[in-house]
Design a protein that fits this description.
Elements: H1 2-18, E1 25-30, H2 41-46, E2 51-54, H3 66-77, H4 80-88, E3 90-93, H5 97-100, H6 112-122, E4 139-143, E5 150-154, H7 184-195, E6 201-207, H8 224-237, E7 242-246, E8 252-257, E9 266-271, E10 299-307, E11 310-318, E12 323-328
Parallel strand pairs: 1-2, 2-3, 5-6, 6-7, 7-9
Antiparallel strand pairs: 1-10, 4-5, 8-9, 10-11, 11-12
Helix pairs in contact: 3-6
Length: 331
């Protein structure tokens, strides 16, 4: 069964490299999926995605016991809706804290190497895949050909991340001014992936929010030196049509921030969670928010079409029964 599933994954990935099934590339993604809870797979399948991206908290393990973690991954993997998705859709992913193994965990988690193996097993990653050749789970994937290439870069914000600092004034976390998120090996890899890419669209999966600043939970702005380094790297490499995906927060929103030297504002599309969110009275400020603040269960959908050789990128936040928000990336 495992060999068969790996063959199916390899076939779907190879097919995606050369063709799109709808005259467009349809990429769905989501995060925060408690394996024992009601899932959104019927709604995801209805959008007919070519690619599914797990963006973290793919299970809620929070354990140092790898046997227990494997059982949770198997429970998630055996869900009938997810089985249907696996049969029709290429699947890739990264992790966040709860599937990493410890809430808000970073580089000091003692089981991170073993936990990585469990995640890669869940995703049916072949033994020869480049992600197995380095510490952490960061990876890059290119789909399409010619001037219609899309590059998906999935970051690992857990394996190398420095310690969070306790917050004040009711915030859980404050500022670690010199702390890092990615680690030098991942930074070097990321610069190469961006510098040597000829893709027309670049999707960067972060798991935690990159742009939003006005909440006390975990986010890139807790590590301002690392956040500034990422912005400087984007300014230096200027990847075509680059935007960020994030999860973690149990909300959906689109944030938009102007960045000097980039041809359009930087976008962070947050989609969370697949199985649970805050209650409908919850709200928080975000001066970079572009559109709605959504607390219904949700997943994200990215629609990429080419017209006159240029990509048109539309972002959609989907609930169980409807589209909650639509946003077209500026030219």
């Amino acid at each position: 069964m495992l060999r068969l599933s790996i063959r199916v994954v390899l076939f779907l990935s190879a097919w995606l490299i050369t063709a799109y099934s709808h005259g467009q590339l349809r990429i769905a993604f989501g995060s925060c999926s408690q394996q024992q809870n009601e899932q959104l797979w019927d709604a995801v399948l209805a959008t007919q995605p070519d690619l599914w991206i797990w963006l973290g908290d793919n299970i809620y393990a929070d354990t140092h016991d790898m046997k227990r973690m494997r059982q949770m991954y198997d429970q998630q993997k055996q869900h009938p809706g997810y089985q249907r998705l696996r049969a029709t859709t290429a699947i890739i992913g990264t992790w966040d804290d709860h599937d990493y193994g410890v809430n808000d965990g970073g580089r000091n988690y003692s089981q991170k190497a073993a936990s990585k193996e469990e995640m890669l097993r869940f995703l049916d990653i072949p033994a020869t895949d480049p992600v197995r050749m380095h510490e952490g789970v960061y990876s890059a994937h290119t789909y399409g050909k010619g001037n219609q290439k899309v590059k998906v870069i999935l970051l690992d914000t857990r394996t190398f991340r420095d310690t969070l600092v306790k917050g004040t004034n009711g915030w859980r976390y404050g500022i670690n001014p010199d702390g890092d998120v990615l680690g030098e090996a991942q930074w070097n890899w990321l610069e190469k992936e961006l510098s040597h890419s000829d893709a027309s669209v670049h999707i960067i999966g972060s798991s935690i929010q990159f742009i939003a600043e006005e909440h006390g939970w975990e986010k890139w702005s807790n590590f301002p030196a690392a956040r500034s380094r990422m912005i400087a790297l984007l300014q230096k490499t200027r990847p075509a049509r680059a935007f960020i995906l994030s999860g973690d927060r149990h909300i959906a929103e689109i944030s938009q921030m102007p960045v000097d030297g980039l041809p359009h504002p930087l976008i962070d599309f947050t989609s969370s969670g697949l199985t649970h969110t805050w209650n409908d009275r919850f709200f928080e400020p975000n001066r970079y928010r572009a559109g709605k603040f959504m607390v219904a269960r949700n997943f994200g959908l990215i629609l990429i079409n080419w017209k006159d050789g240029k990509p048109r990128v539309e972002l959609q936040a989907h609930g169980k029964d409807s589209v909650l928000e639509q946003f077209v990336l500026p030219d």
